[in-house]
Amino acid sequence: MVFDSNISISVRCNKCGKSIIEDMSFFQMKNGKQVCIKCECGEVAAKVKSRDFKTFHVLIPCLICGKDHKFIYTWKSLPSEKVKILSCPSSFCDIAFIGGQEPIRNLTAKREKDMQELIEALSNM
């Protein structure tokens, strides 16, 4: 079985609101090393860590409710062609996407386009 060791995460900075897409490898987390995803403004937008190479933990400071949310996944649960949507448990709003590199980029671009169209529609009311 071929194992894709790369995943991408798309998250919005909870300080400035900028959309961030970061690629990371399973091997970046060897020996329990934590990967910090930082925005250009300097804010940490997410932290990803694997202790046992079977599961990984994603910690995201929520743009919506202000709390930190922790998500736990297995590497096998993220096939490279799929996307997991991470939602705020308080508001049920999508706060991040994690999965294969191409699907993450496609979904993020679509969401950005949808958001821009919504803003334009609301400004024309």
From TrEMBL:
It comes from the Bacteria. This is Uncharacterized protein. It comes from Lutispora thermophila DSM 19022.
